[in-house]
Amino acid sequence: MSRPHIPYFDFYPADFMNGVRGLSAQEVGVYTMILCRIYEESGPIEFHPVRLATYCGMRENAFSKIITRLVDLGKFSLVEGMLSNRRAEAEISRRASKLKINSRAGKASAQKKQQIQQPKPTDVQRPFNHTDTDTKATLSSVAPAQPDFDAIQAKLIEAAGDNGIQPHGAFIVGPIVELIVAGVDLETDILPVIRSRVARMSRPAGSWSYFVQAIREAYERRIAAGKGLVQAPQLSTTDEDWSRRLRFARQQRMWSAAEFGPSPGQPGCRVPSHLLEPLDGQGWGDIADGRRAANAA
User: Fold this and answer.
1) Which residues pair with 55 in a beta bridge?
2) What is the pLDDT of residues 112-141, one digit of tens each?
3) Cβ neighbours of residue 61 under 8 Å, at least 6 residues apart?
4) If phi over 0 gives left and psi between -120 and 50 gives alpha, with beta otherwise, what is residue 183?
5) Are 50 and 90 contacting, i.e. CB atoms less than 8 angstroms apart?
6) pLDDT for residue 236
7) Cα-Cα-Cα-Cα dihedral sign, residues 179, 180, 186, 188
8) How would you label 242-260 residue by residue, b for 16+ Cβ within 10 Å and e otherwise?
9) Residue 139 φ/ψ, nearest 5 degrees
10) Can you tell me the distance from the alpha carbon of 146 to that of 6, in angstroms, rounded to the nearest whole number?
11) For position 267, what pLDDT does the model report?
């Protein structure tokens, strides 16, 4: 089972400085590089001296001596050919738990808002716009369980433009991912706010965290604006329904973003990942585009 790829981790400078005190500069370099690989892989990594030495830009003999010393000092553990660090494993577990908590909180918040906004249906409306399955569907419950970090990062950088974000800050998308997991929409809430703020900035933002508060406020305004409106029927999100939609899309090579959200392979795709095939979404058109073309003909 593959481990989730989460391209950021919490860093505590005081703890790190205390942990490397007494190490040579070369040892600190190897220690840092291997730690980053462990975080990148979200767990222990295979101890392959040649490969890791190349990764660290060193000769194998020099690398092996440093790793042996770091293991002897308790900086790393080497068990059954896997290299790890106890603190890193704890932080990785804490990071995963934090994302799960944020996801649950987002689902609860969206469900509460949905209950507030949903008007009580009349006897005539009820058969047409309500099912037991629909009651369980909320904004966050259909959000992607495993966001595509690379695609999200590309869209963020495109929205910020050349001078909207410092290069070192552009790679840490964690604050934005947490918003998406909580139910904030990338296309509707996040990207427009970034474009708007960047247009008024005199210097680049240091990180994506700079935009978080404005994004939250925009999201809350959008949710508040929808209160009191008659809600459209909720999209059924059972595996059976998604499988049926996917079968049609694969046959027709078409997807309806207006009905089902972003197509497979796009940020914010609602389809459960375990139902997707590697080529899903590639070369698919949008049904709405086809209809517009037909009407224009």
Assistant:
1) none
2) 655 555 555 544 444 334 444 444 434 344
3) none
4) left
5) no
6) 82
7) negative
8) beebbeebbeeebbbbeeb
9) -55, -50
10) 9
11) 80
Amino acid at 155: K
Report the pLDDT value the prediction gives residue 99, as an integer from 0 to 100: 64
Sheet holding 82-84, edge to edge: 45-46, 82-84, 77-79
DSSP H or E stretch at residue 82 = strand 82-84
What is the rounded CA–CA span in Å between residue 138 and residue 75? 45
Q: Is the pLDDT of residue 74 over 80?
A: yes
Residue 101 — very low, low, confident or very high, per pLDDT cuts 50/70/90?
Answer: low
Task: Give one DSSP letter per residue of 259-295, joined into a string.
Answer: HH-SPTTSTT--S-GGG--TTTTTT-EEHHHHHHHHH
Q: Are 143 and 270 in contact (CB under 8 A)?
A: yes
Q: Is the CB of residue 103 less than 8 Å from the CB of residue 182?
A: yes
How many whole angstroms separate alpha carbon 199 and alpha carbon 272?
36
* 191-208 mean pLDDT: 90
Q: What is the Cα–Cα distance from 236 to 102, expressed in whole angstroms? A: 23
- In the chain, the domains with their CATH numbers are 13-84 (1.10.10), 106-225 (no CATH), 239-296 (no CATH)
Distance of alpha carbon 34 from alpha carbon 28, whole angstroms: 10
Q: Tens digits of per-residue pLDDT, 223-279?
A: 888 765 555 567 788 889 899 999 989 988 888 887 888 889 888 888 998 999 989
Q: What is the pTM of this model?
A: 0.38
Average pLDDT for the chain = 80
